[in-house]
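#lab-general

N.A. 3:47 PM
ok so I finally got the sequence cleaned up, no stray characters, all 993 residues accounted for. can someone with queue access submit it? mine expired

B.Y. 3:52 PM
send it over

N.A. 3:53 PM
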Amino acid sequence: MSEKRDIFLRAHTVVVDSKKGKKGKGKRRGGDLRRGLKKWPEYAVVFDCETRIDTGQSLTFGFYRVLRLDGDSYQLEEEGAFFDDDLAARERDVLKRYVDAAETEVKSFPPRFPLHPRSRFVKQVFYRYARKGALIVGFNLPFDLTRLARRWPKGKKNEWSLVLVQYADGNENLHFPRILIDPIDSKKSFIRFTAEWISKTGRDMPTAIGDSRFLDLRTLLFALFNQALSLKKACELETFRKHNLPQKIEHTPTGKVTIAEIKYARQDVRCTAALLNAAKHEFDLHPIPVLPDRVFSPASIAKGYLEAMNIEPPEQKFDVSLKNLGIAMGSFMGGRSETRIRLQEVPVVPVDFTSEYPSTCVLLGVWNILTAKSLFFEDATVQVRKMLRRLTLDECFKPELWSVFRFFALVKPNKHILPVRTMYSGGTPNIGNNYLTSSKPIWIAGPDLIASAIQTDSAPEMIRAIRLVPSGTQPEMQPVNLRGMVEINPRWEDLFKHTIEQRKLHKTDKDLQYWLKVFANSMYGFFAEINPEPTPERRPVRVRVFSGEDAYIPNKRVHVKEKQGHWYAPYLASLITAGGRLLLAMLEKSVTNAGGTHAWADTDALAIVSSRNGGSLRHVPGCSGIRVLSWSTVQRITDKFEALNPYDRAAVPGSILNLVDANFENADPSSRRRQLLGFSIAAKRYTLYERSANEVTIVDPKAHGLGYLYPPADSPKNWHDSYEAPRWIYDFWEYLLRIALHLEGKHPSWRALPQMMRMTVTTSNVLKSLHEWEGFRPYNFSLLPVLADGGYPTNINPERFRLVAPFESDQTKWKHLKCINIGDPKDRKSYGLTSSFISSEFGNKAVVETFENLFYRYMQHPEAKSLGPDGEPCKSHTRGLLARSHIVAGKHRRIGKESDRRWDEGDDLESLMYVPIEYEQPGGESEDRSLTRARERLIRTIKDIGIRELVRFGLARHIRCGRRILEKICRRELVDRSTLRAYDCMLRKYKAP
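B.Y. 4:20 PM
back already:
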C-alpha cells in the first residue's frame, strides 16, 4: 500500500541583511577568561526563597549566605534572612524571634544575623555584591529571582525582563538594572543584567553587561553529570561523598512562616552553599577556558575541551558554501526508532552498539575532518555510482571503506528504504524508516544510501554526488588532560576513539568512567545546534532558505531567527546520525538473512526475537516462515561486528555489538543469562520483562509517553538509584501487561487518580497563553488536569477552558483540588474535578482523564509509521508483524528546527505549543495533499448533533472520537482525508437518543 504525502526537509537559513545574506565568519568565542574574568570570582551570594503554596507562589521569606573565596573553596562571610515587604506582622514576628535566637556560623563579634525586608536585601546585599562581580547562586535560580521581582515585562527578544527595585510611586529605579532571563528550556536559562551599572557615587566601577555572573547549580550539575538532579539527590551523589555535604531536611512546605519552615529553608541554603564548593571542585578538574556560569549541558564542556585544544570551529576555518550547508541540513535526520512486532509477547535478546555515535565518528574519520586545515566538497558521482552498484553487506564490515561513505548524493528513490519525515499522524512531522518514491530528486547522506542499497539490493537513480575531502592538519593544536587525568594530543590522537578506550581502561575509577561516557556521547549534537531566537513582535525578518537543491526567499517574514551554534557543521551531524542508522540497517539485514526478525529498534539498539534454542513465530500474525533465532545464532551475529571495532583491542576487545546488561541476572554481565520477553506498542513504547506462569517481573520499562505526567505515586525511599524509571512506571507496565496478556493481578492503588501535568511558566508566550492571569508570574509551577474529550462543564466554550490548580505533591488530594479556568480571564469561578460524565452535569465540575483511562489509551497508540500484517495502516487494534509503509513524496516542504519534548519534559508548556517553522516557497501551495477541509454537509451535521454528544457516543461505542478533531472540522481547518471518512462513517451509525 502506498500513500502520497508531502515530505519535510530541514533547512539552513540566513537572515537577509545589507550584505544580501552572504555567509560570514563567526567570531572566536570562549573569550571570557581572556577578557580578565576570573573563573570563580572573589564573592558568591547564595540565596533561596520560600513561598506561598497557592497558584501565585509569592515570596514569604528566604535566607542567604555571602561567601568569599579562600584558596580552593568559598568560606562563609555573612549569613542572614529576608522577608517580603508585605508579610503579615504576626509571621514577621515568628521569623524575627528565630533570627534573634539563632546561632550563626559566621565568626564575628558581636554575632550578627541580619534580617532584611525584601527591598533592603535586594539593594544592600544582592545588588551590592553584584556590583563587585559576585556570583549569584541558587538551585533553580530563575524561580528564586522571579520571587524577588516586582514586575516582569517582556524583553526585546521575548525573554523575561525582571524589575527588582521601584520607587514609592511604582516607577522603576534605573540605578538597579533589570535582570534578563532567556529560557533554553524548563530547566536551563541564560541570565544576565540588561545594561551597565549606573553608579550614584562614582566609587563603584561600572560592571559590563558581559560580566554578569548568575550560576544555577541545577544547570551546572546537569552539565557535569548529565542528570536532572533535585537538591536532595545532588547532596546524596556518590561523587560528593568525600565532601561530607549537609543533607536536606525531610519536610513538606506549608506556605506559612513556622519554625519548621524556617529551619527547612535555612538548611536548604546551607546545602546549596556546600554544594557550590563540591561542584566547584568537580568543575575545576576540567582544564577548559569556560566559566561555570556559561555551561548549560555536557556539550558545553565538550566544546570547552575543543577550545582548550585550540581547535578552530568549522565555520571559521572551512569555506563551505551556503548551498552545501543546505544540502547537508536537508539530509539531516534523527535516530531511528520503530516497533516491528506489536502487541505480542515474544522472547527477545536486546543488543546495542558500544557508544554508537562515537564509534560512528571513528569509523567515518570525523576527527580528521574536525582537525583538518581545510575542507573541500569534490564531485564523486562516478565513484559513488560504481560503489553503490557493487556494494554488499559483507563489504560494509570493512572499516577501511567507511571513510568512502562520507558523501551526499542527489537521487530519485523508487521504493528504496530511507528515513522519511512526513505527517504520519498528529500535527507534527515524524521520521520513519520507510520505502520512499520521489519524482523530484532529493539529497541523501551517504550512509543512508548504503543502508538502502544493502536492504533493498538496489540503488536509486543517482544524479550527482559530492564527497567531503579534508586537507592538511590545523596548526597550533594543544594537548589537554580530560578531567585532569587522561591526556590527549589532538595532533595524533582521535578524541572520540581515545575517550572510549580510556573509559574502558578506567573501570575502577567510577567517577572518571561515568564522566568519559557522558563526554563521548555529547560530542556530536552541537554540530547541528540551532537556537531559535524570537524577533521583536513588530520586527519579523526575511530569511534566505537553503535546503537540498532549493534556494529561495519566502514571501512571508518570520518571527523567529534560527541562530546556528558556534560549532555548527551540519555535514558532520548528518553523516554521524546516518552512520548510526547504517549500523542498525546492517544488524537488521544480518538478522533477516538468518531467518529472524526484531521486536523493536531504538537509535542504537535492536531487540532480536530470540530464545535459548530458537523456535517458530507462527503464532504471531504475519510471521509465517520467520524463526525465533537461537542464542548461538545471535552470538554469531554480534561477533560479526568485531570486524568494525575501531578501538585498541587491549582496551575494547571483541565486538562493538553487545548484549545489553538486562540479558543477565541482576543486570550483571558476570551472572547467568536469563530469558527476557518483550512487549511493544509503538516507537519507544516497550518493555522487557520476565514471566513465570502468572508472575510478571518488569526488567526495563520505557517511560516515553508517560514522562509528561506528574507521578501518581512516589517511589519508595529505598528505591534504588540504578533504576532508570520511578516505581510507578514499573507498576504501570506490569498492570498494562496483565491486561494485554489476560492475567489476573492486583490493580495499582492510584489507577483512579486524575492525570496531572506539572507545568512551569517558562516564557512570556506561555504567560500570554494563560491570558496573564493575575496570580501567575514567571517560573510559577502548578498542576494542569488532563481533561477528557468533551469533559468541560455545561455552557462552557471549550476553546477558552484550561484548568489550573495549585501545586499539590500529595496525590491523594488531587480529586478534591479546586481549579481555576485560566483560558478565560473573565471567568472567576472555581471548578472541581470528576471522572464521571454523569456528575459533570451538576455543578461546576470538569471530567478529567484518570490513570485507568491511560492504560487503555496507551495500549491503543498505533505505530502510525507502519503497516499491519494485512497491508493496511496500523490501527489501535493491529497485532503482529508490522511492515514498512511506502511513501510517495508529494511536495518537498522546508522546515526549521523540530522540537517535540513533551514526552521528556512535561513541565514545559512551551514544548506542547511548539510548532516548527515552515518556509513556504514563493508561488507554491504548502498544504499536504492528504489533508483537506470537510464538506459543509458534514460540518452542519456535527453542529446539529453537538460535539459533546458525539464524544459521548464515541466513548459508549468504543469509537475514537476526539473533541479537538471535531472542533478542527467545524473550524474548517485541514484534516486528514481518512479521518474525515471515518467520522462520516461514524455519523451514519449515530441515532439520536
